[in-house]
Structures are given as structure tokens and as C-alpha cells.
Automatic annotation (TrEMBL):
This is tRNA N6-adenosine threonylcarbamoyltransferase. The keyword Magnesium does not apply. The gene is tsaD. Its main location: cytoplasm. It comes from Chitiniphilus eburneus. The keyword Iron applies.
Amino acid sequence: MLVLGIESSCDETGVALYHSERGLLAHRLHSQIAMHTEYGGVVPELASRDHIRRVLPLTESCLEEAGTALADVDAIAYTQGPGLAGALLVGASVANALGFALQKPVIGVHHLEGHLLSPLLAEPRPAFPFVALLVSGGHTQLMAVRGIGDYELLGETVDDAAGEAFDKSAKLLDLGYPGGPALSKLAEQGDPKRFKLPRPMLHSGDLEFSFSGLKTAVLNLVQQQSPLDDATRADICAAFQEAIVEVLTKKCLAALKQTGMQRLVIAGGVGANKQLRAGLDDAAAKRRYQVFYPPLALCTDNGAMIAYAGAMRLKYAQHDYSYGAKPRWALA
Ligand code: KG4
Ligand code: ZN
């Protein structure tokens, strides 16, 4: 079974070919970050137009790399939601047009299910059940995953997502957009102990998160320390990163304890963060938990996770054949 996957929910056009026996045959990504940088955030209309320009050339390039023809594709999976309505409609329209022309099934995939299953694209593959931490620019959720399509929401952020907190704090520190990776890089040179930032909801006794107060604490610190010299900027980055990593790590451990599960899967863009990985690895090793990450290239939005989730849905679970986009859509 050969599945073509198309991701266009936000500012990345991703296309991939996943074969159920041979694995990932090709994947291509075009990031629009450079285009949106001058506006300090994603401009939805520009995003949609760029997806239109990129999606077919990326598809052709994938087919070429895999040495296969469009006619060999057995199913087409696309991100049906959540995301930007116009951007989602591009993927939906292209997928459905190809499906109609080829007379092949078209599957609408939940973007977060793609992220959630992306660690299964690499070895070692986590076995079910596992706890998944989804940490991206739009979401921060803990899920109990018992099988394909069997997801239980354990807790989520009540305000900003972790990636959003990284990006907003980076903006306050003049680190550009999206500043998560830049903030994390600068944090490596900083002293995390010079400033003490809050650990929101660390002792709330549940699996909910809150990150907007942390961003406000960064704002206060920036105002207090202005004008910022390079060392202070790096120290604020280090303090921020330490706070967010501590909260994420402790809540993951609490979720493992609550569910009695032994395996933890990290998915979404913030999963690329080195200090988060080091913190989780360290905490898990002490308690004999196993932690799984997607390959770095598949941490952020991509077509491979959508092709894979589509293939899994076709094989093991129900799927949605309805046409269209679902800008707001809960996974569980
Ligand atoms: O999963 P993703 O590509 O898109 C969404 O669905 O949101 O995640 C993007 C988010 C952004 O907020 C970005 O700043 C953050 O992931 N991110 C990072 C790192 N790499 C990406 N945050 C912290 N450290 C990183 N190394
Ligand atoms: Zn994403």
C-alpha cells in the first residue's frame, strides 16, 4: 500500500510517500518562514497562495525520488485540520482532485494524530500503550495512546502553547520569528540561575499547563533589565528554557505515574528542543521509563507523518472520507 501524504495546515508545505512494507520512500518540505518573517507571524492569505504554488512540484519531486508514478499511489492522505482554513483547503482540494482522477481513497487526517504517530516512523518504535506529549506552536497536550485511533486527553494548556510561549518570549527578546530555536540556541550560553522565573501550575495536582504567565514574567524581566546586553539576554533565555523544561518534564512523569504506562513519546516542534530531550532522558532513565522522539527532521510539520497516519487509519481504524477542512477539531 503506497500512501501520498499532504500537509498544508500552517506555514509548511509537506509532501511524502509512505509504503506500508517499505517505509518512508520520499518526503519533501517547503518552509514559508522566510516569507512570513517580515510580518512577525504567519499571514494566512500568503500561506494559502504559497501552498498552491508548492504542492504539485513537491509531489512530482517525491514521485521522482521514490522512482514511482502517480498511478501507483493507492491512497491519498491530507491534513483536514486543525489549522488555517485557507491553507487547509489547498491540501484538501489537491488531495481530493488527485483521488478523483486516480479513483483512489482520500483520507482526511487530524494534524495532531500525525504528530502523535510520527515517532513510529523511526527505530526503535514505541509499542502501545504510551503517553504522548504533544508540544507545538499551537498545542500542548498529554495523551494516553492505547492504539491507532484510541486516544484519551489527559491534560492540556489552559492558555498559550509551549511553542507559542517560546515564540512570544523570543519576540520580546528581539530574536525574530519563530524564535523558539533561536531562544534555545542562545540559552546554551546563558546562566539559568541568574533569574528565577515561575513554574506555572507545577503543583496544580493535575495534568494541565499554563504558559502565558511565564511569558509575562519574561516581559517584566526584559523591562526591568533594559537596555539588554548580550549576556543578560542569554541569561533570560536560559531561565525561561529551564522553567518550561521543568514543567513539561514533571507533568510527563506525573502522566506516566497516573496511567501506569512505561513509555513516553514526544511529538511536535518543541520536541526538537535539546534541553527538553536531555531533561526527559535523564528523568526517565532514573525511573526506567523509555522515551521516544521522532527524527529531528520530522519533529516540525511534515507530510511524512500525514502519509503514515493515513496508512495506519486505512489499515486499523475508521477514517473520514468527507471533503473539506476543519480549522477547529479536537482529537480526543
Ligand atoms: O509542530 P510545529 O512545526 O508546528 C505547529 O503545529 O505548531 O511546531 C512549531 C513550534 C514553534 O513554536 C517553534 O518555535 C517551536 O515549535 N520549536 C522549538 C524548537 N524548534 C521548534 N521550540 C523550542 N526549541 C526548539 N529547538
Ligand atoms: Zn504541527
